[in-house]
Amino acid sequence: MKPLIVKVGGAFIGDAQAAKALLDVLAQLQKSRPVLLVHGGGPIVEEWMVALNLKTVKIDGLRVTSAEQMPYIVGALAGTANKQLVAQAIASGLNPVGLALTDGGMVKCTPMDAKYGAVGSVEPADATLLKLLLSQDYLPVVSSIGADPSGQLLNINADQAATVMAQLLHGELILLSDVAGVLDADKQLLSELNAVQIQQLIDAGVIRDGMTVKVEAALSAARDIGVPVTIASWKQPESLLRLAGNQSAGTRIYPD
After folding, report:
1. Which is the catalytic residue, given 9, 171, 181, 214?
2. 186 among known catalytic residues
């Protein structure tokens, strides 16, 4: 079966009970297919910024990452967030390996516009390390810190990192957040959407604010990897068990 690439955010990592519930489900799914976990960690980074009295600036939804802040962002994402998830995975009986996008030549990272600071874009490169780990039933836990060919560390958008992992492994991508999926005007879960339907719901104000960002990220990912992408909730991890039977969970976003 195709590998399952699961992306989680920082709010999830800070909720020990939710993390345990999801990782228990991933342990069950891993019995029938390879699983890889990609994570961000915005709330953890924000805690560090506040504690260190450093200012957060965002442009186009991306965190501007100055040279002064980069060591702390690396520490928060590749250190605290990553090892916290690894430890939680151990408690669920999994065999995790904590990684970053820097490792094993898995991706190629390129700095974005200088106005963002040390922020990069990423594309797939070499899947050898990941395939080796997955073949031996390890759970790769990948943080979104990369490096360019000169060795400059770069902060990478975690949704983009997860998309590239799916491209690299020809896998199925699930973007987990704190919502069950996309809801219609009557607050009922929509099981699937395509680009035309998404635009209609945005125009009608049904999809708005943060959900617009999530849906557009999922649609972009679906176009990039050529297969549907699922938006689901880490608060309802049991719904993911349907994936073991080739059923859908949350809202499945189809490419054009």
Report:
1. 214
2. no
Torsion sign across C-alpha atoms 158, 162, 247, 205: positive
Out of 9, 120, 159, 250, pick the active-site residue: 159
* From 14, 20, 42, 148, the catalytic residue: 42
Half-sphere exposure of 218 (CA within 13 A, CB side): 31
Report pLDDT for 105.
Answer: 97
Check 9, 10, 41, 146 and give the catalytic one.
10
Which residue is listed with tokens 């770069």? 154
Q: Catalytic residue at 2? A: no
What is the spatial distance between Cα 134 and Cα 107, in angstroms, rounded to a whole number?
17
Q: Comparing C-alpha atoms, which of 143, 109, 154 is closest to residue 36? A: 143
pLDDT in tens, 144-203: 999 999 999 999 988 889 999 999 999 999 988 877 788 888 989 898 999 999 999 999
214 is catalytic: yes
Contact 142, 101 (CB under 8 A): yes
Which spans in 136-194 are helix H?
158-169
Task: Write out the DSSP string of 144-157.
Answer: SEEE-TT--EEEE-
115 in active site: no
Whether 7 is catalytic: yes
Burial class (CB in 10 A: 0-12, 13-18, 19+), 135: exposed
